[in-house]
Amino acid sequence: LFTTPNLEEHISGVILFEETLFGAAQDGSPLVNTLIAKGIIPGLKVDLGVKPLYGTDGETVTQGLDDLDKRCAKAYAQGARFTKWRAVLTIKPPREPKPGAVGASAGTVGASGAPSGLAVEANAAALARFAAISQAHGLVPIVEPEVLMDGAHDLETDAAVTERVLASVFKHLSDHHVLLEGMLLKPNMCAPGSSAGEGAPAWAPKAMAEATVRALSRTVPCAVPGVMFLSGGMTEDEATEALHEINLLAQKGGGGGGAACPWALSFSFGRALQHSCLGAWKGERANIEAAQAALLTRAVATSRARMGQWVPCEGAAE
């Protein structure tokens, strides 16, 4: 993937796992040198995954702060110039307590429903500590508070939760004296739950764009230079179309008070860039060129969506 011709015209950075950042190419040179030679900035995923947040309705908090300073120093020395930390929040409606239930069953301990205030605050605090540690070691932190699409909630609920989460994140970033001009935000796009079921509205990227831009306008300071959306559970085409609509709206004055949005609105996609590529590759060396062509097709379509210039038939997944 790193050697895809002209990839650098559409992709400016790549988030790597530790084994890839410190891995070697076939000629023995560091893999990151391939990216750096193309002008693509390497970064490192530094969180260590999630652990249960006990006393909640199945919620989690992200781990990895204990030795983060040492890992950041090593990543910078290896050529990384940014880091990424993902927090995961879920949306669940509260369950009705059973008649006569007491204690946890009645909601007095470990209340049902998500996201809880505890989960929001714990994850926001961890994101802020990560960002502060990264900046102290010369790395740009990508702050990723993801509200999952899993669930039967509607668009309005997702937007309200996203707004609540972002407000908490930026409060904690301020408390930790994080330089907003030296960070990037990687949030979810506001979307209805993936299992909304019958009666749920049809795919509505324009409504999603409006909800997303509204949530950002209410919570994200203008000092933040860029918002790099994750694709979540969306398909390649869905994520590209939604990004396109968000940028069209932003260009038309979708910010607060009708003003243009102050941030670059771009992408940090995983599945929505790589799905077709991996399908073309199939783990076989003979398919490398086909896989590179599929990756470049998605990169071109998504980078044009980032400018509000996507053409619907362009790069459509088969």
How would you portray this structure in words?
The model is unreliable at 104-109 (pLDDT under 50). Helices cover 38% and strands 13% of the residues. The chain has helices spanning 18-21, 32-37, 68-78, 117-136, 155-175, 205-219, 236-251, 271-281, 288-305; strands at 13-16, 41-45, 50-52, 60-62, 82-89, 140-147, 184-185, 226-229, 264-267. The protein has 9 helices and 9 strands. By secondary structure, the protein is an alpha/beta fold.
In brief, what are we looking at here?
This protein has 9 helices and 9 strands. It has 318 residues and is α/β, with parallel strands linked by helices. α7 runs antiparallel to α8, α7 runs parallel beside α9 (288-305) and α8 (271-281) runs antiparallel to α9.
Strand arrangement across the biggest beta sheet: 1-2-5-6-7
Main sheet overview = 5 strands, parallel
State the total count of DSSP E strands: 9
How much of the polypeptide forms β-strand, as a percent range? Answer: 5-15%
SSE order: EHHEEEHEHEHEHEHEHH
Rounded mean pLDDT is 92
The unreliable regions are 104-109
Number of helices: 9
Task: Produce the secondary structure layout.
Layout: E1 13-16, H1 18-21, H2 32-37, E2 41-45, E3 50-52, E4 60-62, H3 68-78, E5 82-89, H4 117-136, E6 140-147, H5 155-175, E7 184-185, H6 205-219, E8 226-229, H7 236-251, E9 264-267, H8 271-281, H9 288-305
Parallel strand pairs: 1-2, 2-5, 5-6, 6-7, 8-9
Antiparallel strand pairs: 3-4
Helix pairs in contact: 4-5, 5-6, 6-7, 7-8, 7-9, 8-9
